[in-house]
Amino acid sequence: MLNRTALAILLFSLLVAFGAYLLVPTISEHQKTNHELQQANRKLLEHKEENQKLRSEIQMLNSDARTIERVARDKFGYVMPNETVYDFTKPLPAPKPRIQ
């Protein structure tokens, strides 16, 4: 009777250990996959926001003359006739030292 009980406990312990052995990698893989899914969802949200900004910009470019003019000036250096352009981005040459 004692041998049967000990054998049953040993068998049950082996089954629990084997089950844990099978589940631990599965739980770890699930956590890893869940983390990857969260990252993908964040990236998806960023892309959706960027797409919405681009759609808004396209809409403005299709309908607003001021937006078209701003983009033409900023990106392509467009200047209206009779306008004078002052470029302050280039540094002035350093003055030459005076020799006395």
How would you characterize the overall build of this protein?
This protein has 100 residues and is an all-alpha fold. The protein is 74% helix and 0% strand. The protein has helices at residues 2-63, 65-76. The mean pLDDT is 87.
Task: Kindly list the characteristics that best describe this protein.
0% strand, 100 residues, single chain, mainly alpha
Number of helices: 2
Query: What are the secondary-structure elements, in order, as H or E?
Result: HH
Based on CA inertia axes, which overall geometry fits?
Answer: elongated
Mean pLDDT: 87
Helix content, binned percent: over 70%
Record field, number of beta strands: 0
Strand content: under 5%
Largest sheet: none
Low-confidence parts? none
Ends apart, CA distance between termini: 117 Å
Q: What's this entry about, in short?
A:
With 100 residues, the protein is mainly α. The chain is 74% helix and 0% strand. The longest helix has 62 residues, at 2-63.
List the helices and strands and how they pair.
Layout: H1 2-63, H2 65-76
